[in-house]
Amino acid sequence: MILRYLAKLLLLPPAINLLMMFTAALLWQRFPRLARNLLAVAVVSLWLLSTPWISQQLSRVLEQYPALSFAQLAELDRQAQAIVILAGGMEATPQELGYAAPDSNTLMRLRYGAFLHRQTGLPILVSGGRVFDSEGPTLADAMALDLAQSFQVSTRWRETRSRTTAENAQFSAEMLLPEGVRRIALVTESFHMPRSVLSFEQAGFEVIAAPTRLPREREARLLDWVPNAQALQSSSQTLHEWLGLIVYRWL
């Protein structure tokens, strides 16, 4: 898993850009034209991927599922049998809390999952295991705790073995399908939804997409071309989803 994670990091910005710069430095004496071109690609692509406008355009292509309308919410308890919330990440031991807690991405999913639960009364499954650690709470444990403490919402199922989106779907199916739960409302970020829907449909579910963090339509501004770390992180997440979607469809 560590080697897989490392390979993924090296294929995504900013690591891939730094690798191109390092390669350009090695080639500078023997192949100066190639080195200059490689350096230019590395610098320009890093700048573009760090701009909010480019980051938003990359993400928009993946955002195929709109937010649930109020009309859809009114029918959701008849169309779905459960709410499945996927884990994003976890803060291991925040000093201000003293226990493992979901990160900001997961917290957004939990908030929307709790909202859907209150609107529909549907039971909740949280999905997420340990990615690297062999001990300590799982992502699902942290999510269930936060749902109870922050939103006063109980969790019926905890899927605690998965490390990838495909495993989220596989292990959730092993828990839900034997109980006759086949139609689910799936909660994750909009850019992560295509790969998630693909995985859960392949696992045997009928999926109603319930995305979070949908982009706002607005005119481009001058500041949208000024690089910042948040835009680079968003671009990296989007490219990660593209890479994952290609691999999942190929496999």
Description:
There is one protein chain. With 251 residues, the chain is of the alpha/beta class. The protein has 2 domains: 2-61 and 231-250, no CATH class; 69-212, HUPs (Rossmann fold). 54% of the residues lie in helices and 12% in strands. The protein has 10 helices and 7 strands. The strands form 2 sheets. The chain has a 5-stranded parallel sheet with strand order 5-4-1-6-7, with helices on both faces. Strands 2-3 form a two-stranded antiparallel sheet. It is globular. The two termini are 17 Å apart. The mean pLDDT is 91.
Topology at a glance:
Layout lengths: L1 H9 L4 H13 L4 H18 L2 H11 L7 H10 L2 E5 L3 E2 L9 E2 L1 H17 L3 E4 L11 H13 L5 E3 L5 H12 L6 E7 L3 H10 L3 E7 L16 H22 L1
Parallel strand pairs: 1-4, 1-6, 4-5, 6-7
Antiparallel strand pairs: 2-3
Helix pairs in contact: 2-3, 4-10, 6-7, 8-9, 9-10
What structural keywords apply?
single chain; 251 residues; alpha/beta; Rossmann fold; 5-stranded parallel sheet; two-stranded antiparallel ribbon; 10 helices; 54% helix; globular
